[in-house]
Amino acid sequence: MKEKLARYKAQFATIPEPLQKQVFIRLGFALVFLLLFILVLCMMFDWLTVVPFIGLMIYSIISAFLLFRRSVVGDYVVIRGRCLESTVTLLRRRTKSILMDADEHMVQVMLKQRLKSIPVGTELEIYVASNTQVYEKDGAKLLHTYLAIHIQTGGIKRDEKSKRAIPETENNRGTHQTQ
């Protein structure tokens, strides 16, 4: 049993960090549903009330396992590119979709996560299942689903007080260089 657990741990260490994060999120949902199951069962003593929590917990565990298995087998494609355009919603200004330049293709990705904003020029990695359907729209490849997204923020300089991104033209504003 310990050998099997050590093998799973070694396999988990080999998969990319964004996919590891998604596996942890799905297992976290399973844990939350387990705790809700116990809490509602103790409060109401009714099995019919807790059936949805059991179902959601089982669904989360299976989803995490399938993502882990897909990641270990390597049944995914990584699309790397630079963000060219970001479309936001009207009310909350959340990013709805992004257009990215991935080598020789333009790829438009409909985002499902609640990302605040993705600045133009940001390097992105999108992990997509190898059997994901890709559509063509206005000369760009259109993706409606993905496994994980990784936004590389290493190249963006941020103001230390406000944590605001500093554009290239604003790097030395307000400072005088002495000779």
Question: Can you walk me through this structure?
Answer:
The protein has helices at residues 2-14, 17-44, 47-73, and strands at 76-88, 95-102, 105-110, 123-129, 135-137, 140-143, 148-152. It starts with a helix and ends in a 27-residue tail after the last strand. The protein is an alpha+beta fold. Mean pLDDT is 84; it is low at 167-179.
- How many β-strands, per DSSP? 7
CATH topology label of the largest domain:
OB fold (Dihydrolipoamide Acetyltransferase, E2P)
| Most strands sheet | 7 strands, mixed
The CATH architecture of the largest domain: Beta Barrel
Give me the number of helical elements.
3
Percent helix, as a range, is: 25-40%
**Structural class category:** alpha+beta
> How big is the Rg?
21 Å
Q: N-to-C terminal Cα separation, in Å?
A: 67 Å
* Low-pLDDT residue spans: 167-179
Q: Any idea how many domains?
A: 2
Name of the CATH class of the largest domain: Mainly Beta
Coarse morphology: globular
Q: Could you tell me the mean pLDDT? A: 84
Short synopsis of the structure:
Helix content is 38%, strand content 26%. The protein has three helices and seven strands; from the N terminus they run αααβββββββ. The N and C termini lie far apart (67 Å).
